[in-house]
Specification:
The complex is a heterotrimer of chains A (about 280), B (about 250) and C (about 325). Chain A has helices spanning about 5-35, 40-45, 60-90, 95-110, 110-125, 135-155, 160-170, 175-205, 230-240, 245-275; strands spanning about 50, 55. Chain A is mainly alpha-helical and about 280 residues long. Chain A has two domains: about 5-40; about 40-275, MetI-like fold, CATH 1.10.3720.10. Chain A has a two-stranded antiparallel ribbon. The radius of gyration of chain A is 23 Å and the shape is globular. Chain A starts with a helix and ends with a helix. The model of chain B has no long low-confidence stretch (mean pLDDT about 90). Chain B is α/β, with parallel strands linked by helices. Chain B has ten helices and ten strands. Chain C contains twelve helices and two strands, in the order ααββαααααααααα. The longest helix of chain C is centred in the N-terminal third of the chain and has 38 residues, at about 20-60. Classes of the chains: A mainly alpha (about 280), B alpha/beta (about 250), C mainly alpha (about 325).
Chain lengths: ~280, ~250, ~325
């Protein structure tokens, strides 16, 4: 076999592997769609589960996930923006900064189940929030922190340095410069990060197992100190813990969860590209 | 002789990477004149300009010795409000950099950051500074348009106007005509002549020719050292130092 | 002076400090606090794990702790089966995911025309977004039966978990490998192609060696991602807490990972019991493993001198 033939073979193999990797992604989504779409109707979305969850809908779980996603946003947004501004605008090249960077890398690497353990130990038990939306939101908020910080920092760093210098040279203070020249232009990127973080939070199961998720709770929560059902945990429950569960409901639940998470990812991508296009410089 | 507007005494400046950008600079800059700092690239001109209003604070890990007195007061004193200092010694950069937003936004930005809110005052300063920088006629009907839509020469005059809107004492210009066509250059230079009645102007010129055209006083810098300073009329005709003469006559640089 | 409209009149005197801007002072310190909070949070996580899980390492004899039997009901807590389970699944996943991920990254970076990249990259991002419980569910209802039909005793095996996990780690591995390949200077490629090397020779002899350290990081973070995954593995690995006999077929036997053990058993334990403590103890082990991996990977990134060009005031 000569060089050219080897080259052609290698290129073909590489292309083949890439197809092997990418095609299943489409298949997975189509597969869930195909099997789950039949379950989805108005009642499925808006009714509580009935008859040991074998009938009815997913409304309490869906609403719980929406609550938790909002809770996560409230917790992680301010902290993450603050940390991102700190890193890109204030941090000097010193030990403290290196520690913060190391902490963020490691926060990103901590398994989600360990966040769940921490939430149980710190929020549920130590702070006595009990198994509650509050404890779950706090746990998920911390979990999403590194994603949001990294994207926000990148967005802030992409604002041209000259804008900062010009603003300062016109007598603006450091905070005024951040407030009026940096944050407005970094906003699309920051939003992208937040939405990506929320997408991740909405789909997580392990962190909410011991901090908020209820096995079966047809009543809707009344306060942030109540438990709630949540879609990812509900999918786990109905696929493994309930004998005789109709497959269609399982697929339907998986489909709704998938749609929520993917549409958040889609919105994030859309925000990024559309705001980028409006940029003047 | 009256007190110098800015007095630089034994100034040394070293960047983080160890490069000594300025060595033992001492200068007196009089009020209401055009003071030109010239010399080859990397001779320390821009570094010196950035020190005047402490934009040098942004250079991490740099070291400074010596003092700069502005109206007799040390600009590096702890008590100095840096924002206020930068409004009084206002800077125009070589690269005309409008801020995102309209022409009006650009001109009013520094004023708003200083806490000026009254619309009438903002309007007055915007109009006045645009007239001073000879841009009023071209943009008065489209103050709301994006500043990025202006031509290169207009952008540079916008940046000058943006500094003038602050009604500073000193205007610092770092090569304000780089990249401009001869007509725009002439417009900017002309506005400088009228401006020196109200302001002290410190400028790094685009070329020796420009320095000779506009300067009242001039200082020649080489490798971070001050070689010669004095009346521009004398220096460009009869320089005292051989190196100044070599540079002016184009033998190097 | 920012509040003083008449700028020209403002004279700073040597004695008086600049007028403090209270609002800004508060905000700037809140920002510093937010930065610092990341360090505090990671410290707190470790502290609370220690608080609840510390007794594991004090109250259980080490010989038992590293024993090969995990029978919580009888009060026997040997972590070895769980560690082996996690290792088996993780190593399996890495063996599948690294070659696939690296080759896909090569395709994306060196071969694919731009229009394909525009489609493929969002698709791979999408994969990263699919919740692990959904993939676990699919592994449970669709993949496991396939594997059983292929001749295994059960479809719920370490291998099933490895396949699902590999798939989940692919986006991480692809994106980091891509960065690494991208960082290889264009001149290297041009140089190789100019002296008549084929595209494949260029990739194999020039691009891959130059991207080595980046690829190492991709592998490490892939491991970190895989070892911590919970729900998907819990659904598809069969949850048998015994060590499979050392053999070529051990990957086709059911196992139980550290993460799945915590998730499955925490709901049933009495708070404060030794079993409860031990589940936190497993959390400590996971924390330390991932911390070590990520710190090391972070250090490699650091020494490569990847300097941000970000703004700093």
């Amino acid at each position: 076999m000569n060089r050219q033939q080897t080259n052609r073979l290698a290129m073909a193999l590489i292309t083949g592997v890439a197809i092997l990797v990418v095609v299943p992604i489409v298949l997975v989504i189509l597969f869930v769609l195909y099997n789950g779409i039949g379950a989805i109707n108005w009642e499925f979305i808006t009714a509580a589960p009935r008859n040991g969850m074998r009938e009815g809908g997913i409304w309490p779980a869906l609403l719980g996930t929406i609550f938790l996603t909002f809770g996560t946003a409230i917790i992680s947004f301010p902290l993450a923006i603050g940390a991102a501004i700190y890193l890109s605008e204030y941090a000097a090249d010193n030990r403290m900064t290196r520690m913060v960077r190391l902490a963020i890398v490691n926060l990103a690497g901590i398994p989600s189940i360990v966040y769940g353990l921490f939430g149980l130990g710190a929020f549920v038990l130590f702070l006595e929030f009990g198994t509650s939306i509050l404890a779950g939101s706090l746990t998920l908020g911390l979990l999403t922190l590194p994603v949001v910080i990294s994207t926000a920092e990148e967005a802030i760093a992409s604002v041209p340095q000259q804008f900062r210098t010009v603003s300062l040279s016109l007598g603006a203070t450091r905070w005024q410069t951040i407030r009026h020249q940096v944050l407005p232009h970094a906003l699309p990127g920051i939003l992208t990060g937040v939405i990506l973080g929320l997408g991740r939070a909405a789909g997580e199961t392990a962190p909410i197992l011991f901090t908020v998720a209820a096995f079966y709770l047809p009543n809707l929560p009344h306060s942030i100190f109540d438990q709630t059902m949540a879609l990812p945990y509900h999918l786990y429950v109905i696929s493994t813990q309930v004998p005789g569960m109709p497959l269609e409901i399982q697929y339907g639940t998986a489909l709704v969860l998938l749609l929520i998470v993917l549409s958040l990812t889609l919105v994030a991508t859309f925000v990024r590209t559309s705001m980028r296009r409006r940029r003047e410089w | 002789m009256t007190q110098a507007k800015i007095s630089i005494q034994n100034l040394y400046y070293t960047y983080e990477d160890g490069i000594e950008a300025l060595r033992d600079i001492s200068l007196e800059i009089p009020a209401n004149e055009i003071f030109v700092l010239f010399g080859p690239a990397r001779s320390g001109k821009s570094t010196l300009l950035r020190l005047l209003n402490r934009l040098s604070d942004l250079d991490e890990g740099s070291a400074r010795q010596g003092t700069i007195l502005f109206d007799g007061k040390d600009v590096f004193a702890r008590s100095v409000d840096v924002s206020d200092l930068r409004r009084r010694i206002s800077m125009v950069f070589a690269m005309p950099t409008p801020l995102p937003g309209s022409i009006y936004d650009n001109l009013a930005y520094g004023l708003k950051m200083a806490g000026i809110r009254e619309r009438s005052e903002l309007d007055r300063r915007v109009e006045q500074s645009l007239k001073q920088s000879a841009l009023w006629g071209e943009v008065k009907d489209r103050l709301g348009a994006s500043a990025f839509a202006l031509s290169g020469g207009q952008k540079q005059r916008l940046c000058l106007a943006r500094s003038l809107a602050l009604e500073p004492d000193v205007v610092v210009l770092d090569n304000p005509t780089s990249g401009l066509d001869p007509i725009s250059t002439a417009t900017v230079e002309e506005s400088l002549y009228t401006l020196k009645e109200r302001y002290t102007i410190i400028m790094v010129p685009h070329s020796v020719q420009q320095a000779a055209r506009v300067a009242d006083q001039a200082a020649f810098l080489l490798d971070g050292t001050l070689i010669e300073v004095g009346e521009a009329g004398k220096m460009f005709v009869q320089p005292k130092d051989q190196r100044t003469e070599d540079y002016i006559t184009g033998r190097f640089g | 002076m920012s509040t003083n409209p008449s700028l020209a009149a403002s004279d700073t005197t040597e004695e008086s400090a600049p007028r403090p801007r209270i609002g800004e002072w508060i905000i700037e310190n809140l920002i510093r606090l937010a930065g610092l909070s990341t360090v505090v949070i990671i410290g707190l996580i470790f502290l609370f794990l220690l608080r609840e899980g510390g007794p594991t390492f004090l109250d259980i004899p080490l010989r038992q702790l590293f024993g090969s039997r995990w029978y919580p009901i009888e009060g026997i807590f040997g972590l070895l089966p769980l560690i082996v389970g996690s290792l088996l699944v993780t190593v399996g996943a890495v063996f599948i995911a690294v070659p696939l991920g690296l080759i896909t990254a090569i395709y994306l970076g060196e071969i694919a025309p731009p229009w394909q990249r525009e489609i493929l990259k969002p698709l791979i991002e999408m994969l990263a977004g699919i919740p692990s419980i959904v993939l676990g569910f699919l592994g449970w209802v669709a993949l496991a039966p396939l594997i059983q039909n292929a001749g295994a005793a059960t479809g719920l095996t370490a291998f099933t978990g490895a396949v699902i996990l590999a798939y989940m780690s692919l986006p991480t591995i692809i994106s980091i490998s891509e960065d690494a390949l991208y960082a290889v200077p264009k001149e290297y490629r041009d140089g190789a192609l100019a002296i008549g090397a084929t595209q494949w020779q260029t990739i194999w002899r020039v691009v891959l060696p130059a991207a080595r350290s980046g690829i190492v990081i991709a592998v490490m973070l892939g491991i970190g991602r895989a070892i911590g995954e919970t729900m998907a593995v819990m659904l598809v690995t069969g949850n048998a807490a015994n060590i499979p006999a050392l053999s070529g077929g051990m990957i086709f036997e059911p196992v139980r990972t550290m993460t799945a053990t915590i998730a499955a058993e925490m709901g049933e334990v009495a708070q404060g019991s030794l079993h409860y403590n031990t589940l936190f103890g497993i959390g400590i082990v996971l924390f330390i493993i991932t911390f070590a991996i990520n710190s090391l990977a972070g250090r490699i990134v650091g020494t490569r001198g990847a300097r941000r060009t970000g703004g700093k005031l």
